[in-house]
Specification:
The protein is an all-alpha fold. It is built from 13 helices and two strands; from the N terminus they run ααααβααβααααααα. The chain has helices at residues 6-19, 23-32, 37-46, 56-66, 76-86, 94-102, 112-122, 128-140, 145-159, 169-183, 188-199, 205-217, 233-244; strands spanning 73-74, 110-111.
């Protein structure tokens, strides 16, 4: 500190007073912001992935708290314990958003790299308390249309069985009910009933992606549905199912 100029010392003190971080973290932030206080604060608050301001030792401790005794991963039991500590139901959609941040390859599993990298990307999460405090923000990301789309597309690969190209129907239905509860799509129950009655097969990645586009583009009364459009056959059959069962009046 004695070797630092007065101006830099003042900026360090200001940064620490504003953010409540240690001198070491404040120094890292100012360095990343080329010595400018405003630039350092912008990086610290809006781009935490540029600099891992979290204490790596605390992240390791957090990972080890939930790590499986036989594998260097957090498995289903560890995730259940994490949910208990976060005061979140394991079936809560916020756990999907957390897994999206962690870029988790498989449901109910976090590698060490996924877990620590995800917490760093969320910014300054190196304790359970900070993780808990971040939950409302993580949940709010579902209201952002682009983030919702990214989370929706991520969910397909995350939820399918390892080595499978398609998503088991029961799993797909569960994921759709979870995701479209957020978007309040009024036809979701009819879609799930249709799949169970008429399809009863695994869901392809293309069908998964195209359904979101269908929900986004076509209004629930199908007034702007184009039968000549390039929808997957399953969606076209669904529209016919709605007409046949009187859910929607044709024309």
């Amino acid at each position: 500190m004695n070797k630092l100029g007065r101006g830099h010392r003042e900026k360090l003190q200001q940064f620490m007073a504003i953010t409540g971080v240690s001198e070491k973290v404040a120094h890292q932030a100012l360095k990343a912001g080329d010595g400018h206080l405003e630039g350092a604060l912008d990086i610290y608050y809006s781009q935490p992935q540029i600099k891992p301001f979290t204490d790596s030792r605390h992240l390791e401790e957090l990972f080890n708290r939930y790590r499986d005794p036989d594998y260097d991963m957090i498995m289903a039991d560890g995730i259940s314990s994490l949910c208990t500590d976060l005061q979140v139901d394991p079936q809560d959609i916020v756990m999907l958003v957390i897994s999206w941040h962690m870029k988790a390859a498989t449901m109910c599993e976090y590698s060490k790299q996924e877990f620590i990298g995800g917490l760093q990307s969320l910014g300054r999460i190196d304790s359970l308390e900070k993780f808990r405090e971040k939950i409302p923000y993580i949940r709010s990301e579902l209201k952002d249309d682009q983030k919702f789309r990214d989370i929706y597309i991520f969910a397909f690969g995350w939820a399918k069985e390892k080595g499978q190209k398609s998503l088991a129907l029961d799993t797909a239905i569960g994921m759709w009910q979870l995701l479209f509860a957020e978007k309040h799509w009024p036809l979701i129950d009819h879609w799930c009933e249709f799949l169970q009655a008429r399809h009863n097969k695994a869901i392809s990645r293309d069908t998964w992606a195209q359904l979101l586009e269908f929900v986004r583009v076509v209004d629930p009364q199908l007034s702007n549905y184009d039968a000549e459009g390039a929808w997957p056959y399953l969606i076209d059959e669904f529209v016919e199912y709605l007409y046949e069962n009187g859910v929607i009046q044709r024309g």
